[in-house]
Design a protein that fits this description.
The chain is an alpha/beta fold. The protein has a domain at about 25-65 and about 100-185: Vaccinia Virus protein VP39 (Rossmann fold), CATH 3.40.50.150. Helix content is about 30%, strand content about 25%. The protein contains eight helices and seven strands. It has helices at about 5-10, 15-20, 25-35, 55-60, 70-75, 115-125, 140-145, 155-165; strands spanning about 40-45, 65-70, 85, 100-105, 125-135, 170-175, 180-185. The protein has a seven-stranded mixed beta sheet with strand order 3-2-1-4-5-7-6, sandwiched between helices. Strand 1 (about 40-45), helix 4 and strand 2 (about 65-70) form a beta-alpha-beta unit. The radius of gyration is 15 Å and the shape is globular. The relative contact order is 0.15. The structure holds S-adenosylmethionine.
Length: about 190
């Protein structure tokens, strides 16, 4: 999808987003636990939508910021904390300033996943964790959309693992089952390909 199509798609869903999947909380909490947050670290909720993960992130650090491409989503998120309208592939943060990044339901919507992972690596502090998450696994999501599970899917382990490694991330955990999708990586201490 082009960016304007993504914006239009999510703008139409912003008002009802939180009511659509009300039971995702425990899966989100599990993903947030992998981020190894602590007070003082800045947590970025990339593609934050309505910011439903922001309260969970704030249980671990007082410094949480959301970024979303869709103004209506960022506006809703701003009721939960600081949220900016912006593109995850060009973040308004200085190098090595972000302590953890949650990207929930984001990566499948990116036109340039490699460039966005590089941008995440740029803003992440050495050792920062990145969680690419979805509250259901790829097979459930494909079925929900009436599609076949594609081996070309960027989220498939054989695709996302080398992409993370090539963009400055060390993969530390992968899970893709009906209950959730989660790829966790740590920002490499020294830039390798990033
Ligand atoms: C499936 S929703 C997930 C929202 C939220 N993370 C959640 O789990 O409830 C994907 C979100 O990513 C946003 N998005 C898509 N492409 C983006 C980009 N390049 N930069 C920032 N946000 C983006 C959309 O506007 C949308 O709000």
């Amino acid at each position: 999808m082009e960016k304007h199509e993504t914006r239009a798609f999510f703008a139409a869903r912003a008002a009802t987003w939180d009511d659509t999947f009300p039971d995702d909380g425990p899966a989100f909490a599990g993903a947030v636990a992998h981020l190894e947050l602590r007070p003082g670290l800045v947590a970025l909720d990339a593609g934050c939508g309505t910011g439903r993960a922001m309260p969970l992130l704030r249980e671990h650090t007082d410094r949480v910021v959301g970024v979303d491409l869709t103004p209506g989503m960022a506006l809703k998120a701003s009721e939960r904390g600081p949220a900016l309208i912006g593109d995850a592939s060009g973040l308004p943060f200085a190098d090595a300033t972000i302590g953890a990044i949650l990207a929930a339901g984001l990566i499948g919507h990116l036109g340039d996943p490699r460039g966005t992972l590089l941008e995440f690596a740029r803003v992440a502090r050495p050792g920062a964790r990145l969680a690419l998450f979805h509250p259901v696994g790829r097979a459930v999501l494909a079925a929900r959309r009436g599609r076949e599970l594609s081996p070309d899917d960027i989220r498939a382990e054989h695709r996302i693992t080398p992409l993370l490694q090539a963009t400055g991330w060390e993969p530390v955990h992968f899970h893709d089952d009906d209950d959730h999708y989660l790829a966790v990586a740590r920002r490499a201490a020294s830039a390798s390909g990033a």
